[in-house]
Write a structure and sequence with these properties.
Elements (H helix, E strand, L loop, with lengths): L3 E5 L3 H15 L2 E6 L4 E6 L3 E8 L15 E4 L3 H13 L3 E8 L8 E6 L5 E6 L8
Parallel strand pairs: 1-4, 5-8
Antiparallel strand pairs: 2-3, 3-4, 6-7, 7-8
Helix pairs in contact: 1-2
Protein name: VOC family protein
Organism: Variovorax humicola
Pfam families: Glyoxalase (PF00903)
Length: 134
């Protein structure tokens, strides 16, 4: 659905550690990391788009997270939603809504919400029914 999503950060090394943990929990591979720019990007399976990229703001001004903006990542199951949320909190993130059903969206919407250390809001969501053993 996306070509790429850029999220600006204030402290690149801190953001890289945070987002690496979350992406690892989702099984998303790091495509590039150039600390001198600084920026890093992860790609979908098969080295295809969409990309998710963290970077310092291009205009050189300080990072400022917008209110009402959010990036949502798809998870294959509810166990992965919980793992990504845990990874986020373990790496300096703050909870914006614990893993759970959100039937106001649809009957099988299982999501978790968090902010990274720079204040950017993220969601990890599974849209499938609960699998056996999850």
């Amino acid at each position: 659905m996306f070509s790429h999503v850029f999220v600006s950060v204030g402290d690149f090394d801190r953001a890289l550690a945070f987002h690496s943990a979350v992406m690892d929990s989702l099984g998303v591979a790091l495509r590039f990391c150039e600390r001198d720019k600084p920026w890093a990007g992860w790609h979908s399976a098969g080295n295809a788009r969409p990309f998710f990229v963290i970077c310092k703001p291009y205009d050189g001004r300080p990072h400022d997270p917008g209110n009402g903006q959010m990036v949502a990542f798809a998870a294959p199951d509810r166990l992965t939603v919980r793992a990504a949320h845990r990874a986020a909190l373990d790496h300096g993130g703050t909870c914006e809504g614990p893993p759970g059903l959100r039937p106001r969206y649809h009957a099988n919407y299982y999501g978790a919400y968090f902010r990274d250390p720079d204040g950017n809001k993220f969601c990890v969501a599974c849209h499938a029914p609960e699998a056996e053993g999850s």
